[in-house]
Amino acid sequence: MPDVKHFDPDAALDTVMRLFWRQGVAATGIQDVVTATGLNRSSLYATFGGKQELYRAALRRYIEQRSQPAFSRLAGDGRGLPALQDFFAQLIDARCSGAYARWGCMVSNAHAGDESSDPEVRSALDRHHRRLREALHTALVAAEAKGQLKPGTDPGPAADLLALLAYGVNLRSRAGADAGELTTTVTGALDALGVA
Asked: For the segment 34-50, what is each residue's pLDDT rounded down to a tens digit?
C-alpha cells in the first residue's frame, strides 16, 4: 500500500525556506523545523531527508520563487537603465520593508555562511550568480544600444560590478542599512555608468 502523506510537502517546504532564510542554517536546528512546520521528525526525514537535504531543497525553492522571476523580468524588460533602476528599487524595497524586511537574501546569506562549502549548495550559488550577471548584462546591452551608457562602458565588467552591488544591498540591508542610504549608493553607481 502506498505511503499517504497527511501534509502538504510544498507548504512545509515554504515554511522551512522562510525559517532558513530568516535564521540561517547554523542557527536552525531540526527541532526548529519540527516546531515551525508542526510535523514530526520521521515525516520530515521520510519526505525530505536530513537537515542538509532539507536546506538544499529550501534554497532551490527560494531561487525558483524569488530570484529567477526577478532575473527574468530584468532580462526581458528591454528599457536599459530604467529597467536596472527598477530592479534595484524593487530589491531595496523587498529588503527594507514588508514581511521579509532585514532578512537579506537567502542566497547572499548562504554565500556568507558555512553552508557554501557543500558542493551542491556551491553549485546552486554559482548558477544563481551566473543568472544574475546574465540578466544585468542583458539590461546593460539594451542600455548600450539605446545610447544610455557613457562611451567606453563595457557591459561585461559593468554587469560584474552591479552583481556585487546587488549582493552588497542584500548584506547591508540584513545588517540594518537604511533604504535611503542604499538607494543613494545604487543611484551613484548607475549614474556613473549612464550618460548625463
From this structure: 999 998 888 888 888 88
138-170 pLDDT tens trace: 999 999 999 999 999 999 999 999 999 999 999
β-sheet bridge partners, residue 194 = 149
Distance between CA atoms of residues 181 and 162, nearest Å: 17
Instruction: Determine the number of helices (DSSP H) and then strands (DSSP E) in the chain.
Output: 10, 0
Domains and their CATH numbers in the chain: 9-193 (1.10.357.10)
- The answer to whether the CB of 56 falls within 8 A of the CB of 118 is yes
Taking 60 as the threshold, does the pLDDT of residue 1 lie above it?
no
Looking at residue 15, its amino acid is T
CB atoms within 10 A of CB 173: 25
Whole-number Cα distances in Å, 163 to 30, 37, 57, 98, 180? 33, 34, 24, 23, 20
φ/ψ of residue 149, rounded to 5? -95, 150
The answer to whether residues 106 and 59 touch, using CB atoms and an 8 Å cutoff, is yes
Q: Helix, strand or coil for residue 107? A: helix
pTM score: 0.92
Q: CA 113, CA 117: separation in Å to the nearest integer?
A: 8
Quote the DSSP letter at residue 149: B
